[in-house]
């Protein structure tokens, strides 16, 4: 088994094995860019370690061999007392997990090699001892679980003794003293001396990186980001280069385009005289990358050249970490960079213009989740609020909420349903749960690449970082800004695009992308790179997709909006929604009717109301198909709840009032009470039991279609019967419906289709028979999921799904994204057998899954004709249907 790869042996396609960092270091090495030499230990080795608790056979010898060849190449031996080679040991999983796992720098330093390092650095004792104390600190914390604060206190203490607040004022002697202190802390907490043997340091550091895969924060992050739990991390062993050797050294990050807006230009942060992790941690404030031109023009020009090459090579936005060691530029990392949703669209459009990618590839570069994000509202432009501070717009969006200062409090208040803004000086991986719970994140320190910024962008959360006018006092639970004090629970608003911070709740406005979909922004004439990019990509998706996209809408207004968003018909009009409000009383009359006459009169009163609803919808959907579903839920849903009614009756009786009517109602409610209403008298069963109910609805639909047609519009009604499990149910309803339709439609030219939902597992399994009686199927994946799993759709998500997600029984709720193997299999069977029986059978889906990106791909694969989703999801479904093709 080959567990170790030299950088020169890998390439960017080997991310599964070498992790993202290792694969890209290999790629840069092979491109001839200046990467410090090193090697990568594979994810396979990590998985073997995690499975057995020990290093797999052969790993130690392979590390030895690669270390020797690294030593030969560098002309130095690891930890050599005279002239030491030092290495960093870095995690690197297939998917980037910023700050989640461990890194140890300066491995190879000990009491003797620290002297050799000083000599290497031209007699720079201060640097050598600072490097050594950093090793003990990082090694102690990450490898041996020594509490990090212990080291921080000792450092603070050393600075206090020196009368300074700045690390850089500590001289070599101070740092030597600090190393002694650190070693004592180490020994106290671990019961052993700090290991002096370089190879032992290396092995322990590698093991710690393996183990960090299962650190709690990494587990939480993976769950949030839906990264599989069994990938393992690779480990990169890289020769150290130093950005902290003096003012001609430094470290930074660079982006080949703006990861927030997608704009072309030079973006990044630089920190002189600092070591790599200082930038990402946001511990000191960085300067914009452009300032490097004044500090070190040669390195700056070289870096710009490398950035251009990497973009050409990866054909995408790259982000880069680099270090300059005494005027020599080293490339420490690159990858195809994370970006905001807006930047994803803008960059994809630009890359097509530049001829780097084709329009199909542009579709791969964006996704429906990003589009959905861009449809969120933003702060209105005309509000009267004045910003009290301006930080860095680190992750766009508009968020308002109550201020909290700790992760725990954020989780607590969010659980009570509050919107919260997590305010910190800077965040670190321990804040992850609080960040997930918050609407937005506000920090007083750190740049666009700080932990807060990177993680928030990844989550699609609004974030303002580095708002340094804020004086944040965590223990006192307050911050002050512009002479005002803001306490926990006060409301602030943050704008993740402009970086502005407001006190109070700023009003919001719809997004430009929504305005474009609404038709109020013309993409050809608007000076808005995002709107133009979205337009372009949507146009391409529409040209490519095979799936049609319809909408679930029950009102004319929803239908009209969905149509502007690109809906090509209605896939589900839930008629029960038309039985609410003022009409409830009519429904009550229907339910309570004791004679045929009473029932007929109640139905006759409902008929014109239903007809009006359908007229409005057919008008809005002129020329497009409209699937109207006959009433589905149990009728008692339209009656008052049993307990309340019983109490009312008892109270009224007590007062001696006339309660005859209430008693009749109560008796009806009692009669209709069901233990499992979702599996009871609903859907087609109601139609078969309550005479005249479906007939009234069918008549209203047909009459509305005829009326609209007479006015010159084109109505294409499709009547859908819910909850069918046996073909006989459908046949019975259909026979009655066809008679009414024939009578109403006569020679008006209106054509009415009759079909069924497939939402009971038995319907899916007998789809061949059912298709004989149905002109179309629409999959009701909500009920199909409920009945296939036996999960009550109204109860389980809050009750126990968290545990199922935690255990990995599924990675996402099956009510949110289609369960391909189970529920999906039922869909596949029904589609195949239905089509075999009736080749022209129209197939669609109208459950919530119709607007879920992954599910849309599945429905494309199984050959449905359309998906139907809520109006706001229509653009998302159009995009994903296009992406499913390319
Ligand atoms: C379904 O079950 O998927 C469906 C669309 O119907 P409803 O959600 O109204 O039960
Ligand atoms: Mg249903």
From TrEMBL:
Gene Ontology terms for molecular function: ATP binding; kinase activity; metal ion binding; pyruvate, phosphate dikinase activity
Enzymatic class: transferase
Active-site residues, record numbering mapped to chain: 451, 846
InterPro entries in UniProt: ATP_grasp_subdomain_1, PEP-util_enz_mobile_dom, PEP_util_AS, PEP_util_C, Phosphohistidine_dom_sf, PPDK_AMP/ATP-bd, Pyruvate_phosphate_dikinase, Pyrv/PenolPyrv_kinase-like_dom
UniProt domain PEP-utilising enzyme C-terminal: residue ranges: 533-881
Sites where the protein binds substrate: 574, 629, 759, 780-783
EC number: 2.7.9.1
Family classification: Belongs to the PEP-utilizing enzyme family.
NCBIfam families, sorted: PRK05878.1, pyru_phos_dikin
Record protein name field: Pyruvate, phosphate dikinase
């Amino acid at each position: 088994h080959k567990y170790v790869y030299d950088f020169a042996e890998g390439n960017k396609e080997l991310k599964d094995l070498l992790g993202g960092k290792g694969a890209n270091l290999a790629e840069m090495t092979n491109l001839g860019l200046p990467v410090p030499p090193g090697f990568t230990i594979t994810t396979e080795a990590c998985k073997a370690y995690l499975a057995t608790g020990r290093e797999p056979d052969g790993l130690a010898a392979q590390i030895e061999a690669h270390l020797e060849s690294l030593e030969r190449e560098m002309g130095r031996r690891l930890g050599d007392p005279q002239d030491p080679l030092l290495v960093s040991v870095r995690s690197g999983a297939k998917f980037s997990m910023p700050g989640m796992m461990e890194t140890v720098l300066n491995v190879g330093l000990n009491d003797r090699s620290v002297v050799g390092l000083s000599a290497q650095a031209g007699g720079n004792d201060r640097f050598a001892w600072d490097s050594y104390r950093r090793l003990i600190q990082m090694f102690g914390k990450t490898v041996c679980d020594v509490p990090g604060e212990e080291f921080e206190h000792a450092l603070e203490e050393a600075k206090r003794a020196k009368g300074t607040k700045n690390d850089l004022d500590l001289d070599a002697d101070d740092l030597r003293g600090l190393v002694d202190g650190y070693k004592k802390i180490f020994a106290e907490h671990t019961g052993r001396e700090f290991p002096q043997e370089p190879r032992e340091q290396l092995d322990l550091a590698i093991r710690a990186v393996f183990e960090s895969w299962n650190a709690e924060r990494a587990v939480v992050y993976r769950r949030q980001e839906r990264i599989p739990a069994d990938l393992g991390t690779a480990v990169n062993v890289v020769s150290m280069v130093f950005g902290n050797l003096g003012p001609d050294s430094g470290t930074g990050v660079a982006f080949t385009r703006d990861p927030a807006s997608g704009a072309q230009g030079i973006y990044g942060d630089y920190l002189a005289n600092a070591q790599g992790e200082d930038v990402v941690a946001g511990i000191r404030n960085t300067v914009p990358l452009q300032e490097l031109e004044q500090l070190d023009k040669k390195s700056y020009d070289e870096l710009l050249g490398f950035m251009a090459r990497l973009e050409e090579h990866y054909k995408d936005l790259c982000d880069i970490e680099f270090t300059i060691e005494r005027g020599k530029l080293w490339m420490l990392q690159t990858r195809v960079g994370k970006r905001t949703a807006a930047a994803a669209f803008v960059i994809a459009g630009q890359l097509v213009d530049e001829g780097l990618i084709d329009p199909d590839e542009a579709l791969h570069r964006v996704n429906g989740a990003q589009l959905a994000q861009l449809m969120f509202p933003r702060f209105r432009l005309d509000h009267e609020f004045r910003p009290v501070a301006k930080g860095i717009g680190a992750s766009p969006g508009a968020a308002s909420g109550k201020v909290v200062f700790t992760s725990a409090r954020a989780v607590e208040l969010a659980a009570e349903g509050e919107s919260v803004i997590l305010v910190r000086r800077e965040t670190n991986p321990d804040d992850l749960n609080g960040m997930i719970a918050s609407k937005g994140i506000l920090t007083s320190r750190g740049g666009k690449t700080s932990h807060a910024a990177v993680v928030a962008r990844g989550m699609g959360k609004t974030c303002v970082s580095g708002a340094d006018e804020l004086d944040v006092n965590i223990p006192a639970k307050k911050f002050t800004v512009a002479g005002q004090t803001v306490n926990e629970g006060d409301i602030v608003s943050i704008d993740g695009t402009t970086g502005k911070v407001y006190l109070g709740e700023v009003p919001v406005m719809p997004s430009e992308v929504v305005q474009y979909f609404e038709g109020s922004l013309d993409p050809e004439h608007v000076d808005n790179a995002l709107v133009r990019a979205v337009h372009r990509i949507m146009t391409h998706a529409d040209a490519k997709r095979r799936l049609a996209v319809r909408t679930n809408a029950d009102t004319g207004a929803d239908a009209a909006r969905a149509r502007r968003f690109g809906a090509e018909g209605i896939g589900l009009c839930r008629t029960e929604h038309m039985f609410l409000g003022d009409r409830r009383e009519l429904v009550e009359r229907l339910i309570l009717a004791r004679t045929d006459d009473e029932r007929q009169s109640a139905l006759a009163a409902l008929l014109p109301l239903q007809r009006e609803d359908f007229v409005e919808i057919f008008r809005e959907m002129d020329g497009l198909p409209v699937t109207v579903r006959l009433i589905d839920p149990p009728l008692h849903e339209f009656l008052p709840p049993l307990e309340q009614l019983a109490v009312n009756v008892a109270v009224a009786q007590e007062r001696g009032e006339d309660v005859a009517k209430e008693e009749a109602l109560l008796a009806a409610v009692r009669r209709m009470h069901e233990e499992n209403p979702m599996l009871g008298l609903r859907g087609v069963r109601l139609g078969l039991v309550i005479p005249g109910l479906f007939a009234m609805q069918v008549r209203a639909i047909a009459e509305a279609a005829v009326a609209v047609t007479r006015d010159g519009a084109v109505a294409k009604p499709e009547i859908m019967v819910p909850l069918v499990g046996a073909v006989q149910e459908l046949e019975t309803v259909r026979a009655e419906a066809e008679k009414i339709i024939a009578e109403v439609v006569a020679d008006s030219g209106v054509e009415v289709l009759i079909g069924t939902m497939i939402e009971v597992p038995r319907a899916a399994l007998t789809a061949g028979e059912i298709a004989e009686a149905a002109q179309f199927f629409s999959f009701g994946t909500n009920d199909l999921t409920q009945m296939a799993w036996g999960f009550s759709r109204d109860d389980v998500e809050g009750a126990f799904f968290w545990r199922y997600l935690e255990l990995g029984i599924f990675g996402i709720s099956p009510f949110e994204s289609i369960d391909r193997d189970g529920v999906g299999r039922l869909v596949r069977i029904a589609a195949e057998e239905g089509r075999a029986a009736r080749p022209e059978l129209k197939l669609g889906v109208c459950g919530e899954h119709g607007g879920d990106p992954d599910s849309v791909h599945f429905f494309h694969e199984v050959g449905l004709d359309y998906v139907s989703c809520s109006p706001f999801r229509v653009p998302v479904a159009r995009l994903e249907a296009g992406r499913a093709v390319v």
